[in-house]
Amino acid sequence: DGGITQSPKYLFRKEGQNVTLSCEQNLNHDAMYWYRQDPGQGLRLIYYSQIVNDFQKGDIAEGYSVSREKKESFPLTVTSAQKNPTAFYLCASSIGSDPPLNTEAFFGQGTRLTVV
Amino acid sequence: GESVGLHLPTLSVQEGDNSIINCAYSNSASDYFIWYKQESGKGPQFIIDIRSNMDKRQGQRVTVLLNKTVKHLSLQIAATQPGDSAVYFCAEILANQAGTALIFGKGTTLSVSS
User: Fold this and answer.
1) Cβ separation B100–A40 shorter than 8 A
2) Shortest CA distance to B33 belongs to which of B2, B57, B9, B14?
3) pLDDT at res. B6
């Protein structure tokens, strides 16, 4: 059953701690993305990766870090430098990184991170 | 900054009516425009896309219209059903030297009443 999996669904952390959100896909997609969604807001791009061992900053990369050591995995670390980390985080993948191969992105179910 | 946006944050329709969701964009260089649907607690789901050299594209019960003159995109849903209730996002492809990625607008919440 192919798809994109984010874990965990809910995550609670204390302020000042780093936390890593998992994102795995078995769709054999080259491109992967991380978005942040706040209540009533659209999706804002954090980081994206077009290919293994390569990634680019999105609009709101400060306070986040990623790695792309394997094609199927794109973990996101929310560091203590992120001023307002509580949000809904969405990971996505697409077949390729250029249109039209990236117009259809497949999203995971999201991870809701709460920092207390 | 934000390069895609929607005119109205909410839209309420009766079951069976047609729905029109609007979006304004500012990046004239975008090659593709896309509509996504997000149901509560889930990730967004692709609905339909349109290339910038087209002005209309139809799918199953949905039609996307692109007006490049006024930089306006719309999604029309025919015979709206309760299952269409969701948040709808327009998106565009952002391309720069670093690569390409989907950039989303803020979304319109569609509520369908029976």
Assistant:
1) no
2) B57
3) 53
